[in-house]
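Hey,

Quick one before I head out. I ran the complex with NAP overnight. Inputs first:
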Amino acid sequence: MNDAKPQLGYIGLGIMGAPMAKNLLDAGHPMTVWNRTAAKAQPLIDAGATLADSPADVLTKGASIVFINVTDTPDVEAVLFGERGLASAAVAGTVIVDHSTISPDATRSFAERLAKQGVDFIDAPVSGGDTGAKNGTLSIMAGGRREALERVLPLLNIVGGKVAHLGAPGSGQACKACNQVAVVTALIGVCEALALAKQSGLDLDQVLEVVGGGAGASWQLSNLGPKIATADHAPGFMIDLVLKDLNIVLDTAKRQGLPLDAAAHVTSLFQQIAEQGGGRLGTQAIAKAVEAAGGFRFA
Ligand code: NAP
């Protein structure tokens, strides 16, 4: 039954990678996995995947399409070009799909280096959080050669509810930077709205319900609003990770001569929380900065 399905590789089995790999495996695709901390691969091995001992080994064990889902730009570089990295074993025709959120410029350079080996590198960062990863409903922003994207599209449609091809390598990452601007500015808006509601003596559940039914509705309001109201700061998406993304955003915008004042302000609030030791809290913990400035507590 699996004969017609390409052998897949999956590298990076964290909050996002593990459920995305599981969805591909559950769809019947043979899969070889590698994770820096091998123990985290065990649930996938138990579900039928094969364990590799390096990124290169994922390819030598037969994968022709490999997904990467690691933290930051240097981590993707290490997986690609480090010792026993993918580039050391990739043959012409291999397609590498990078779901990590990293620099668009570095992505272009990785794609150029790999193209010299006949290897396609598709940037495919995602939005929709750990819930979207588990449910296979992520929004996927892809950049890369159209023919290569078409080869992997059926696989992207398993892990995502929406896939957009933005253009050449790096354009998926450029779109993800735009996404993050929309996300964080909406988040601070929700937080300030709830601060005003709290200090006006309103019932926050009622405010969330009625505002969420009108033009104030957003993913941030419905998913993070209740957590802000109850001071639940457990991660979904960590402040350290959003700061990584905002550094990419501000660096890109600076080179384009765009001030992006709102995104820069939110970045400074996240930095404040991270400096106080809150880097591993969820992004909704930006509420702590709003509380400190206003001299009140949500809960
Ligand atoms: P995570 O749970 O911290 O997982 C990170 C993964 O990267 C782990 O498997 C880790 O291995 C691996 N890794 C990190 N550095 C590495 C290196 N130098 N070499 C090899 N492996 C390395 O993070 P995540 O939430 O899954 O995020 C993954 C990517 O998705 C990030 O780029 C993030 O910005 C993006 N993203 C996250 C969300 C979200 O809601 N979490 C949403 C959209 C996009 P170990 O297990 O050994 O640490």
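The mean pLDDT is 97.

Talk tomorrow,
K.
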